[in-house]
Automatic annotation (TrEMBL):
Name of the protein in question: Helix-turn-helix domain-containing protein
Start and end residues of each Response regulatory domain: 3-120
List of residues that carry 4-aspartylphosphate: D55
Keywords from the UniProt entry: DNA-binding, Phosphoprotein, Transcription, Transcription regulation
InterPro entries assigned: CheY-like_superfamily, Homeodomain-like_sf, HTH_AraC, HTH_AraC-typ_CS, Sig_transdc_resp-reg_receiver, Tscrpt_reg_AraC-type_HTH
HTH araC/xylS-type domain sequence ranges: 384-482
Coiled-coil residues: none
Record keyword Electron transport present: no
């Protein structure tokens, strides 16, 4: 509802106007009526209104002076002037203050409705224009920060008076995650001299801030919805020295925002370290060591172990990508117990799509539960022989037909038997075993990736790369980097 104030020294008019029309039908509510224009100015200084209906002939203060002062207090307020005098100077004074209309006393119902509708139309048009201008400014700011329009960056920096080399007012990025309601934050940001610009990224705000420590502390303390343990944190980026580091800081900030949502963080303020201060990431485990750890764990113990591992990754500021890669290695290990092959692609997709650590835990715990149930089965003599051949000769170009010949059995029958008992086809089991060996070699040997591909049975390195990426969510070289020093992105 738009807010209306009526100012007139005639008491009967103040009583009659609210009853003259259906204000609510127009989307209006009368929030204040006042006979004394001086008191009206005091009230307007503290209370915003959308439309002011004002008499132009009042004893305490003449109408032209009153409406001029009222418009100075609230420039965007729409004005409708009322007068019982057909005095051109009074009418002109009201129109010079951008009055929408002039009404003569006694006020006609239809004329009042027409004047109010005209005022509402101007409000809607102005708000639409302001909204479009705000969106355009945000798009311009996003292009600057993201580095997508380098051609216009210089002019925008100059227009916004952003100076990277000013030590008294360093430049940095700030992120405010999912403020509610966002309009409160927008209003606050538009009033901040230290905020040259900002833009929305989904439900979050990224803010370009240029100011000293005192201004930064004031910003943090005065922003709507103060930081607390029940809200997601504000993220304060390090200072930047040029456009290149600004763009790098933006991409780092986006990654940190994703990390906050993924790990479901809800506490306090986080200051992002400088690039040179970034902590070393945790390392990805090898297949054998993880198999040894998880082998004796039942589903309940596995879930407890997993929650502890993911909490550790959170504390070590692991990225979302790194955490998913860790989950992929865990999936490979628990799948070895016999998870049905048709569920594994779905599990890989689910891990890649998991939006929170809670969801990731649910996915892996469910797979571990199923794998535990399936691992209790006993394999037939022929399937045990096939598994032994795979584990001993994975480096050879092994085929189901060759294994069937060695066992003197029909290949079709043997393939069906293997899938029925193991839950995966012969080729899927062979590929999984090769991947487990490759993971250990990448972690524990200095061999070239192509040499490892050949050693585990792939004559075509590109095919090995493709399978490894499908199974782990990263390339062999990315895994090696993450397993060596935790640098995988």
């Amino acid at each position: 509802m738009k807010k209306v104030m009526i100012v007139d020294d005639e008491y009967m008019l103040l009583r009659g106007l609210p009853k003259l029309i259906d204000w609510a039908r127009l989307g209006l509510t009368i929030v204040k009526t006042e006979q004394n224009p001086l008191k009206a100015l005091d009230w307007l200084a503290e209370n915003p209104v959308d439309i002011l209906l004002s008499d132009m002939n009042m004893p305490e203060l003449d109408g032209p002076t009153f409406v001029a002062k009222a418009k100075k207090l609230q420039p965007d307020m729409e004005l409708i002037v009322i007068s019982g005098y057909a005095d051109f100077d009074y009418v002109r004074a009201g129109l010079q203050q951008h009055a929408v209309n002039y009404l003569s006393k006694p006020v006609d119902t239809e004329e009042l409705v027409t004047a109010l509708e005209a005022a509402l139309k101007r409000i809607d048009e102005r708000q639409a224009s302001d909204h479009n201008a705000t969106l355009a400014a945000q798009a311009e700011m996003r292009a600057l920060v993201a580095g997508t329009d380098p051609g216009s960056a210089h002019d925008l920096l100059k227009r916004l008076e952003i100076v990277f080399t000013n030590p008294a007012a360093p430049v940095r990025l700030i992120a405010v995650l999912n403020p509610l309601p966002p309009t409160d934050l927008v209003d606050f940001l538009q009033e901040q001299a230290a905020v040259p610009g900002f833009f929305r990224e989904g439900q979050d705000f990224i803010i370009l801030f240029q100011g000293d420590d005192n201004q930064l502390n004031a910003f943090i303390n005065e922003a709507p919805q103060p930081i607390s343990s029940t809200r997601r944190p504000e993220l304060i980026g390090p200072t930047v020295s040029n456009m290149t580091t600004l763009t790098e800081a933006y991409h780092t900030m986006r990654g940190e925002i994703a990390r906050q949502y993924f790990f479901e963080t809800n506490a306090g303020l986080r200051r992002l370290p400088r690039p040179e201060e970034t902590e070393t990431m945790p390392t990805l485990p090898g297949f054998s060591e993880l198999r040894e750890t998880l082998g004796p764990l039942d589903p309940v113990a596995f879930k407890k172990w997993l929650v502890e591992q993911l909490e550790t990754l959170k504390e070590l500021n692991a990225t979302v990508a790194f955490t998913r890669q860790f989950a992929m290695i865990v999936l490979l290990v628990i799948s070895e117990k016999g998870t049905a092959s048709e569920r594994k692609p779905a599990a890989i997709n689910a891990i890649n799509q998991a939006q929170t650590v809670t969801k990731l835990t649910e996915i892996l715990a469910d797979i571990a539960q199923r794998a535990a149930q399936e691992s209790d089965r006993r394999y037939s003599r022929n399937v045990l022989a096939m598994r032994r051949l795979i584990q001993e000769r994975y480096g050879e170009p092994l085929t189901l037909a060759e294994v069937a010949d060695e066992l003197h059995l029909n290949a079709v029958y043997l393939g069906q038997l293997f899938k029925q008992e193991v839950g995966r086809s012969f080729s899927q089991y062979l590929n999984d075993w090769r991947m487990s060996i490759a993971i250990d070699l990448l972690r524990n040997s200095g061999e070239d990736v192509n040499q490892i591909a050949e050693r585990v049975g792939y004559q075509t390195p590109s095919y090995f790369y493709k399978l490894f990426k499908q199974q782990t969510g990263m390339s062999p070289r990315e895994y090696r980097a993450a397993a060596d020093n935790g640098t995988a992105d």
